[in-house]
Amino acid sequence: MTTHAAYKGPADCPGVIPVFPLPCALLLPRGQMPLNIFEPRYLAMIDDALRSDRIIGMIQPDVESGSSPMTPRLFRIGCAGRITQFAETGDGRYLISLTGIARFRVESELATTTRYRRCQVSYDDFASDFEPRAGEEAVDREGVLKALKDFVEVNDLKVDWSGIEEAPNEALVNALCMMSPFGAREKQAMLEAPDLKTRAEVLIAVTEMELVRGSGSEPTLQ
């Protein structure tokens, strides 16, 4: 079976993958996403993935598009992940962990006999996702940490600052984006950012806007 380390470029990844539409769920390359699977169609999806390459695509449904609630339109960009941890509970649920590989663009959705959805996808626009820590030197780390500290202070949260200070820029930015409490549009903007520097800038901007909204004040034009 192919290992996670074998995915070194777009050509290494499958062109047809099952997709898991989940609002406000953001997976990024090399990020870790825990999932609690209980719906029968997604239990079947995990069963099938475990029998093949263990890859599923995380993607957000575009719930604001006016499409059918039963089969919502999908955003065009998601992230493929490989099942790297799996456990089965006594009540029939699956507890899995996905490790992000690379983002993909949906080329088309396939007609299928499975209960879950499958898409033809391309990774060609995201070749840099396969390079660990690409673009780290361009990240405004101080800006990211300031936005985080302000958000933590306003919301009276507890964080492991020692772990944060030690984290490389890619791990820091991607983990904060994935864990952030923002909405689907904001999460999608973070996903679609062309590089790590821009993703950090989106994270800072969204956090600052949330702090302004929370304070009840209006931004001042300079």
From TrEMBL:
Biological process annotations from GO: proteolysis
Q: Which gene encodes it?
A: lon2
* Xref: InterPro entries: Lon_prtase_N, Lon_prtase_N_sf, PUA-like_sf
**Superkingdom in the source lineage:** Bacteria
The scientific name of the source species is Methylobacterium iners
* Molecular function GO labels: peptidase activity
One of the Pfam families matching this protein, by short name: LON_substr_bdg
Q: Which UniProt keywords apply?
A: Hydrolase, Protease
Annotated protein name in UniProt: Lon protease 2
